[in-house]
Structures are given as structure tokens and as C-alpha cells.
């Protein structure tokens, strides 16, 4: 700018500035336009380049695919190269390993892409399924996400990868073949060596390595993954890891051991497979069977615990003394039921093991063997030629379940050994395959074994070993037999030896009172002499009725005549009813299992009324004051002098055999109708025979009971089959039956029964536990209902109440359900449209509740209790009841839960949920574990929640902005 | 369900001819592969909350029984997944044994 052109006025300056700005702007626009044009050209170039590259790559891929196809169709290497040349491709000089690397990389790339696509699809499907799954409280019933649908590219990449691997494996094998041939190997030896190479180098090394590379590439959360792998590899002891690995590799059958599908194959299918196939894989079978036992051990422990509870309860009832017909039936049926449960469990375990074994080709015979006796003595036989070779697999001959026989109340050594024998017979159905120690045990009578073990010393005053409750006999997996009592273990027999290693050295007791009581043995009848061990109370069998006689001899065949005994020797009543008399001719027939006289003689007769006062360690023992029931409802008062140690008496079974003096005995005998006294095997369960005979309800079978009482759904011990009048039964028992019988409830359909069963959990004597999932945004309350396992050990069922029961009226916001899921208003509307919910979201179980309310009308407790238990109060209407028990609570953003106190102004009386440091337990199954006692929770009685509030109110009153509504379990 | 492969897998793979210790090693190795394949799939199915809970669970107690119990709850199809992955590995292994070296 020259001087003349310089602005001289302010207006000129402004003008100049404006012109300059305008020019600058124009220049800028031009520059930007040029830049854009340049960018566009560059982008076009890039796009063209990309298209060209992709086209080339595509052509290359197509060519490669063509080559792959040619090879797959069986072309030789030369033919493939010829095709390659015809396509203008250079000869593939990559090594097999390089080809695998390339193919693997492509496969991984396609797999990851496929995974992403699948996730997108799954996400959409989940939204759809979540609506339908809302009402599937059981995870297993929920609709699973859609499967993976590979793309064409993925399929092609996989094929290429597989072919590359095959080529590599072939290459490896060929090189090995050349190497082996060079050493002079040929023919079958060469083939054998190559097969071994395939197994050890390819199957067990290269292939897993390849797999591992793919797995590693797919891992998304390295930290979690590391923990998973480390956790798996640190499973100890090692055999557990091996067992789990084996189970995993041999799934599907073994998958049942992990999850729930235990028996994938039917017994019929198993039976169809012939017995006696190769046992060459016995080692794996045995490991696996052992693994299954291990994986199931939690359930085993619980099963055992439940069996013990049931047994103890039964025996406790039995030991009370007076026994009605119904109680006797209960006892008998209960005992059978417990035994039946054990048998079923054993059978189911056997099926599982058989299923697993089949998967590894062990054959049904071998499987049965392993399943039932845990393996036995087998030679290491090569599968094909049957010859024994030193290189053959070692067969594990010592895999058995541990067998235990616990000392039960009132049982002594002989009875417990007898129980052990029963269990061993079940564990070792083929005794010839059992360890020598087990064979020895099973070849002996229980009393003889007790003598060998030093637990029974006939002839001594203190002839019986003290058996404490909680003591047990154990036969371990190697067949070693031991006795455990009060922390002391006595190894009675080595598994490999049939000789007794060590004898019991503990305290003995005068169990048969031989040192105390003396009665002229001539007073005994011939029957007493023949059956001395079954008549401990000295009742003359000649005075017994047939039924008494049978009951008094439970452990022997009551129908079998001892050798040398004629029917004419029998008591008159017995003569006409003995089963070995021909019905028409009254001709005696021989019993098939007649005990031999000399065997009987080897057991010194127990002479309960023999001898004088015991001079042993226990001091004078007498019946417990006022507690000695000698039959019917009668009881005796004080007799003799008190025991020196009552607990010892009880521990050792003296609740059933009360020792007494001659005087006391005579007093009793003289004052009581001996005819009416009868003892059964298990304890002091004196039964009034008159009552049995007179009671028209003395029914022997379930069928009898049904007919007599006219009820169709009675279950005394177990159903005759799996249905009750065509209705499938499940978790049904006599207690349930009795309850409904009392209230004249009869089910006519399985649905009815199922509803009742579910609702049982909500009422009556059910308890509740609140499980609380902590953490922000995931505070979820799940209430579980259960029967008190102490008061009701027969109740094992935990009823999870489905979320569908807990919808509330007029929900207009996203709602979190008790099972942790949330449901939107929109989804709720959809459910209404589908008719799943009523349009106002009320209980869908209204009818069921109403029906149940009537059923339980007589059970309704006082109002205070009802409030605590959330039961219907009196003839409370269902509407009122539902309103009362259907409540909301609110969760603040710090996780605290709030509700409203009853009968107060709900705008300003917000009840913070109370501390739940008491009365709440966490339950694993129905076993209380630890108190979960969160700092806050919902343990108030329902009266504290009898008003409904809105989150708006809470926001206003509490000043919280982020409130999540939690629909509260209405039954809490 | 019951294929030739399943029925004779141990023999097919030649594992039965190995010494017992090697048999165990083989099972361990193959089972570990199935385990990892299964875990990949179940992790893919589980949501983030469940994964976090799972991670805490295995940190606290890596007992496989507890772990699989948890997984059974969260992934209802786990039995089927185990079966599928095991079957895949068995099939691949059996194919290698039968096809490799065939043309020679």
C-alpha cells in the first residue's frame, strides 16, 4: 500500500478493513475448496486401491479355494500344482506348518467376526425371549439363546484350516514313517509304532496345541481366564483333576455327573449290550467311577444326613414305649422307605456309572461291575487278541465305595456288623471279586465275626463290647476294615488279608445279663432253646401266638423249621398255620433255608433270666423309674435300685433290654399278662397284642389301608409305582397325606396336587429365609420357603416362589422382580396382551389362593401369629388378604430399603428397614448355614408394610433422586 | 448319540495301549481342552454381572463342584455344551486317527 492510497479518514479505514476481510474470506474459501477437492481425489484413489486390492484378494482367495477343492477331491500334490499353474498361481512353497499358521489366522479372524455377529443376533433374541422367560422361574425351563450359524466365509476358513492341519499331520506321520523304516522296522511293528506316534505326538500333543492356540485367541477377559485355568489346574489331589477331565472328555454321559442329566441311556439299552467285553480300559473306568462318587459327594453327605435324621426320628418314636398299630405301621413303613431310598440311590448311581462307562467302551458287564463293586480283579488284557502283556494297562482293582455301618441307638456289635454285611453285599454283588477281607466278612455270621473281632465274648459275664452312638465300622476303598469309636480306630482286617489283624480292646459290658439273672434253663421250651437269640425277654414261645412268634424271631426265617424239629413239636396254634405244611394235607415240608442245629449250638444261648446280680463294673442296674413299659399302656413303678450310669445304659442300648433282678423279673412276670408282652427286634417296643387283634384297622398293606379308609391317595411307605391313582407323585409323603386327610382334601388331578404342594410352602408351618444379594444396583431379595428340618425332617423341599406371583397393581415403571430380573411397563403390557397377566396385574393365582384359604381355614392361627406368618386371618377375604400381603419396598441409591409403617401418616413416617441381625439364616438346600444378617433388610412383620407408597413420596421425603422400586415378596 | 466314536473312543485313540499314568495324562490333557472350550462358551453366554460373580466365586473357592453348580444355574444348557464340545474333540481326534496316513 502506497502513501497516496493510505486511508485518511476513519471511514476509509473501516472500508479497507472490510475489503481485506472479504478478500481473506474468499481466499480461505478457495483454499478450503481446493483442499476438499484434493482430499476427495485422495479418497477416490484410496477407494479404488482398496477395491483393486480386495478384488485381487478375492481372486486370490477364489483361486486358493479352487486349489483346496481340488485337493479335497483327492488330487495329488502334482495335480494340485498343475491346477495352480493353470490359474496363474505360483507353486505353493510354504511348509505344512506355515500353511497351518496362515489357515489358522484366517479361521480365527472369521471366528471372531462370527462371534460378534452371533452376539448381535442373540441380543435381539434375548429381548424377545426375556418376555417369555419371565414366567420360567426355573433356569432350565428358560428358552436358550439361539445357536451359532456359521457364515460361508467361516465355513470356508474352517475347511481350509482343517485341510492344512490334515496335511501337516500327514507330513509328520510320513516323516516318522521314513525315520522308522530307516531303523529297519516294517510290517505290523511299523504300523504299531506309527499308531503309537499318532496317539502320543498328534492326538495328545500337536492337536491339543492347535486347539489351545484357537482358544487363546478367543479369550476376552484374560484376568478371569487366568483364574479359571489356574483353578482347574490346581484341583487337588490330582486324581480329582483326572477324574473331572475324564468326565468332561467322555461327556455326554459324564456330563450328568456335572449337571443334572445323569442317566442318558435307559436300562434297557444297557442290558442290550453284552456282558464281558474288554477290560483293557479298566483304569480309566475306575478313575471315572471314582470321580463320579467324588462329584456326587455333596449329595451323598446330604443323603446320609437325611437318612440319619429319618432313622433317628423313627427310632425315637419307637422308643417312646407305647406303640399303637398306626405307629407300628409308621415305623415299619418308615424303615422300609429309608431302605428303599438307599436302594434307589445305589441303583441310580449304578446307572450313571454304567452310562459313563459305556461311553468309553467298557461294555455293560464291565460297567455293571465297576458300577456295583467299584472294580475287581481283572487281568490286563489287550482288547484285540486277549493276551496278557506287560505293557497292557494296569487295571485298578481297588476302586470301591467306602462302606460304613453306623452304630444306631439300641444296636450292639452284632447288629451293626450285620448291617455292615448288608451294605457290603450291596456294594459287592459278586463276592468273588471282592477283596479278601470283604469275602471273609460276607462268609461269616455276624455273631461269629463279633467273636473274631473281640466284640462278643460268650461265656464272659461282660460279654458285649460297648457300642457308643456315633461309632462305626468302615470298609475303605481298599477293603481295609476298621472300627471307629471315640476317636480310636481299630484296624480289624487288612483289605488284602482275610485274617483278623487286630481285635477290639475297649470296654465290655454284660449285655445279656448273664451275670445278673439266673433262671433254670429247663424252664425254657424247646423253641426257646432253638431260638435263644431271638427271645431275650424270656417269654415262653409255647405261650406265644403265631404272630408273636413271628415277630419275636425277626432275624431268622420264622417259617423255617430247624433241623430235627417236627411240626408236631410246634405250639398248637402254630401247627395249623405253619407255611411249610401243605395246605391240603397238612404234611410238613422242609424249609429251604433251614438252619443247622450245630450252627445254632455254636451260638451260646442268651439266657436272660439266668444268674444273679451283675458283679461287673456297672453296679446294680434297674428299670428306670416309672418308665418301664411292659406292654400296652401299662407302666411299672419303681423297681429295684437305680442305675449307676443312666447315660451309659442308653448309649449301649439298654433302653430296650432293661436288666433286672430275679425278684423284679418275677414280680413283673407275676403281675403282668405275659401273653400280651411281645418284643420286636429294635427296642423296648412292647406291643399290646390284644389291641392289635381287636383293632380292625390292623392293615398290612397300602392297599388294605386304601380299601379300609376309602382313600385313593394314601401312601403308607411308598407308592406301589410312580403314580398315585394315575397321578404322578413327587416329593409326596405320608405327612402331607395326613394333613390333607385331616382336612378332607382329596386331589383328583396332578395339577391340583402340584398347586397344593407349591402353596404348602407358603402356609402352615413353613419358615422363610431371605437371601440377600448385596451390591449397588443388584440388591435383590429372594425369599425361600422351607419346612423346619428339625421339626419336620421329612420335608426336604424348598419352594422357590415364582416371580409371577409378585406383580403388583398399576405398575408404571420398570420393575425389578424378586428373581432379579426387571420388566418394563411395555413388556408387562405385552404379557397382558398375551393373556398371561390380568390387565391390572393382579395375582394370577387368585383362584388357587382362594381355594387354599378354604383348605386351611381350620389351621388359621391367632391373629398375632397370622400377622407374623402372613397367613390368612380368620375368614379374611382374598382381596383383603392379597392387599395386606402385597407390599412394596423401595431401595435408595445407597442400597437401603424403605417401607412404610402401618397405621401412620405415610407421607412422613417412612420406616427404614430394621437391622436383621437375628432370625435370618442363609440356607443351602434346607440346611441352615450362616446368618446372612445384612445391615438392612426386610424382616419386619407384614403389619409394618400395610400401606403402599410411591417412589415420588420417598423422593420427596428422603431427598433421594435415584430410587429403584423393588417389588417385595408379598409373603414376607 | 451313541456313535462308533463314542463307543470306542479310548481304543480308537490308542489311549488304552498306553501305560496307566500316560492314560491319566491323556485324559487330563483332553479334558482340559474340553473344559476351556466349555468355559469360552459359557462366558460368552453369561452376562457381565454373572461373570463378575463367577470370578469372585472362583477366587474364593475354585472347587469345580461349586463352580459347575453355579454354571448350571446361570447357563441352563451347560450339559449340552459340555456334550457338544466333548463330541467335537472326540470327533476330531477320531478322524485324525482314522484318516491320517491313509493314502500311504
Commentary on this structure:
Helices cover 45% and strands 8% of the residues of chain A. In chain A, the strands form eight sheets. Chain A has a four-stranded antiparallel beta sheet with strand order 1-3-4-5. The longest helix of chain A is centred in the N-terminal third of the chain and has 63 residues, at 10-72. Chain A is elongated, with a radius of gyration of 41 Å. By secondary structure, chain B is mainly α. Chain B contains five helices and no strands. The interface between A and B is large, with 86 and 72 residues.
Broad shape of chain A: elongated
SS element count, helices of chain A: 31
Number of strands of chain B: 0
β-strand amount of chain A: 5-15%
Low-confidence stretches of chain A: 134-146, 253-288, 294-298, 318-323, 350-398, 515-567, 569-702, 708-736, 758-813, 816-820, 835-872, 878-972
Number of helical stretches of at least 4 residues of chain B: 5
Biggest sheet of chain A, open or closed, and with what strands and sense?
4 strands, antiparallel
Distance between the termini of chain B: 32 Å
Beta content of chain B: under 5%
Helix-strand category of chain A: alpha+beta
**Mean pLDDT score of chain B:** 80
Rounded to the nearest angstrom, the distance between the terminal CA atoms of chain A is 92 Å
Give the strand order, joined by hyphens, for the main sheet of chain A.
1-3-4-5
Largest sheet of chain B: none
Query: What would you call the structural class of chain B?
Result: mainly alpha
Number of extended strands of chain A: 21
